[in-house]
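Thread: "does anyone have the structure for this chain?"

Original post by V.I.:
We have the sequence but no experimental structure in hand. Need at least a predicted one for the grant figures.
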Amino acid sequence: MTANPVDLAHIIQLAIAPVFLLAGIGSMLNVMSVRLGRVIDRARILEERAVVYHGHLPEDLRLELQVLSRRMTLAHSAISLGTASALFVCVLVALLFLSGLTGSNLGAWSPSPSFWR
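Reply from O.Q.:
Generated one for you, tokens below.
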């Protein structure tokens, strides 16, 4: 199957728009991974201080470690969800190319009523 160069240019234009979204997601992932690294570094420093207390942590140190643990969990979740959204954008770009090259309308697909039973 040969595609008209004008049609091919239009397909590329449509598929490039989500790539900008992918660049934004990549920037957010970078920010979140740096933030996670800083939280982990702070937790390591506090854990080194905790060794001095031989298991009897002062209340402020224990509370700060709990807060850092929560921050690590949230940053890890944000990174996971950002990675999943980047994967979905990649799938979208691939589907746009396939839809344009095959001439099919993949965006209008809907399952048959028996699919939901």
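V.I.: this helps a lot. The chain has one domain: 5-102.
O.Q.: and The first helix runs from residue 5 to 52.
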